[in-house]
UniProtKB/TrEMBL annotation:
<comment type="similarity">
    <text>Belongs to the ABC transporter superfamily.</text>
</comment>
<dbReference type="InterPro" id="IPR017871">
    <property type="entry name" value="ABC_transporter-like_CS"/>
</dbReference>
<protein>
    <submittedName>
        <fullName>NitT/TauT family transport system ATP-binding protein</fullName>
    </submittedName>
</protein>
<dbReference type="GO" id="GO:0005524">
    <property type="term" value="F:ATP binding"/>
</dbReference>
<keyword id="KW-0547">Nucleotide-binding</keyword>
<dbReference type="Pfam" id="PF00005">
    <property type="entry name" value="ABC_tran"/>
</dbReference>
<dbReference type="InterPro" id="IPR050166">
    <property type="entry name" value="ABC_transporter_ATP-bind"/>
</dbReference>
<keyword id="KW-0813">Transport</keyword>
<dbReference type="InterPro" id="IPR003593">
    <property type="entry name" value="AAA+_ATPase"/>
</dbReference>
<keyword id="KW-0067">ATP-binding</keyword>
<dbReference type="GO" id="GO:0016887">
    <property type="term" value="F:ATP hydrolysis activity"/>
</dbReference>
<dbReference type="InterPro" id="IPR003439">
    <property type="entry name" value="ABC_transporter-like_ATP-bd"/>
</dbReference>
<feature type="domain" description="ABC transporter">
    <location>
        <begin position="3"/>
        <end position="218"/>
    </location>
</feature>
<dbReference type="InterPro" id="IPR027417">
    <property type="entry name" value="P-loop_NTPase"/>
</dbReference>
Amino acid sequence: MSRLTVDIREKRLAGRLVLGAVAFTVEAHEVVALVGPSGCGKSTLLRLVAGLDRDLTGTVRWSGAAPRLGMVFQQPRLLPWRTVRQNLTIAGAGLEEGDRLLDRMGLADKADVWASQLSLGMARRLALARALAVDAQALLLDEPLASLDEGNQRLARVILREYWLRRPVPTLLVTHDLAEAVALAHRVLVLSPGPARLLFDHPVPDGARTDAALAARTVSALRELAAMPR
Ligand SMILES: Nc1ncnc2c1ncn2[C@@H]1O[C@H](COP(=O)(O)OP(=O)(O)OP(=O)(O)O)[C@@H](O)[C@H]1O
């Protein structure tokens, strides 16, 4: 399993500085949340890690061979002219695993519907199912629970935790929601307003995933840290 080392000194888009100094590692079995205000550069950072953009000052390295990635983009990026099931199989999912995930995501009755006919929340659930169905060696998830109602957010959290128990792959999870970060990640990286630099890298206590009071205390501590002048 790969370990990810990110050491970004600077990233520019159209000449404008979008990311400042951001350096961190993600261990082979670790889920790391990236949290920061809107527009600070989180998606840009994820694209650099995915190798979709290689134009940076700094380095992004995986130990060993580059892993097969399961990705959720900010937009669902489905193939609208294919059915829901085909969107999974074309991405490389086995039929059985694809159907199992559709069932878990509450999309079993949509398997033969055109992807273009899904609501945004359904499309986002399908995009998450696709990332989890492709036997990924690392996950890069950009706001995977955005546009889901509360029930589906809870369900998606459970599905993600089950996934990591079965397949503890290195994961970068972008979110603007500290509570979601604490609920899912082992560590939370907080970024400054853009151009983002890393403000701090904070471990989440093990119990926070099951103990709601501890989770709430961790979220408040992170919020206070993030608000501190520096
Ligand atoms: N192709 C581009 N050319 C120039 N600037 C860009 C381009 N794409 C994004 N930006 C700018 O880069 C900055 C970072 O964008 P990015 O999408 O990475 O932020 P983000 O933290 O993911 O935002 P959000 O949480 O709102 O999705 C923003 O100011 C955005 O306007």
